[in-house]
Amino acid sequence: MKKLRARMDESILVCAYYGPNGERLIKRGCKIANMLDCPLYILTVDSLPLEELSADKAAYIDQWKALAEELGAEELIIRDNEKRPAVKVIAEVARELDITQIILGQSPQSRWEEIKKGSFVNMLLREISFVDFHVVSIDRSVEDDENLFDNGTRAYLVKSDEGHRISFTHSDEVIHEGIFYKETGTDFNNGVFKFIKENKICQLHVTDDKITEPTSIHSSIKEETFEK
């Protein structure tokens, strides 16, 4: 449940990006918001539509939703299918919500990239000079972890005599259409099948084409059970 904030002259916006450091940024933002007794907003920006996000990204968003609810944030804002630069989107949200302080992670840009493209923070400052920025250092060893899954492939969830499985060809037996993300480094169809149901992303653990449970791929991936 959201807390009733006493101060409305201050408001915090956390810019979260995928990876374990996103949670760290959100918690830092919550700490500052509690100190100032002001509203907290969380923003993430992605160029892909929500339903096309990888299994890893979708899992992080689920984490952030739960964390936002737990910490009493006003809103987790997801700007998906966004073709504009992230700087433009952040500036727009900051203006709409009268944000006074923005928290973001330290950019992994090299010095040469900064010379060529300019610092991300400096670009934000040019867009919204009226906001204070908190730049939090990140754990780069965590941010650079390899992806657990290959690129997604169109697949279908079907019911069979042995339960449920995924298929890569459409048929009358199809229950849901979605994306299958195969585990990196395996020759078998092991991984995660993701689909949209009632405007919610659902993900299922797949082993040798078959739906199995419980999942152990990612702590945030939730299984959906089917009536037999």
UniProtKB/TrEMBL annotation:
Q: Which key words tag this protein in UniProt?
A: Kinase, Transferase
InterPro entries recorded: Histidine_kinase_KdpD (IPR052023), Rossmann-like_a/b/a_fold (IPR014729), UspA (IPR006016)
Pfam entry (one): Usp
Matching Gene3D superfamilies: HUPs (3.40.50.620)
**UspA domain location:** 11-127
Q: Which GO terms describe its molecular function?
A: phosphorelay sensor kinase activity
Q: Name one GO cellular component term.
A: plasma membrane
- Record's protein name: Histidine kinase
Natural source organism: Domibacillus antri
